[in-house]
TrEMBL record:
Residues 17-27 have a biased composition (Basic and acidic residues). InterPro entries: ASNSD1-SEP (IPR054148). Residues 1-12 have a biased composition (Polar residues). This is Uncharacterized protein. The gene is LOC113581360. Residues 1-27 are annotated as: Disordered.
Amino acid sequence: MSSKNSQQSDNLAQYERTTKEDRNKKIKEQKILIDELSNLKKNRRVYIQQPNSNIFFLSDKGETLSSCKVQLDKMKKDHQDI
């Protein structure tokens, strides 16, 4: 019985590490995205992919950048809460 409990706790610890690593990876990706958007020239076009499809729509660079920053702030807050 104790081996089963230790196995469950090991699985839980591994899951927490994996989710923490995934969160760190997504935060890093978001930071890179913000840097890329910030360094674009004024006349460059930005497209946003629609969820669950391969369709892209033209978007405003400023709006896209601000929404990415908001997402990054949410990710950081969620990461700190855990």
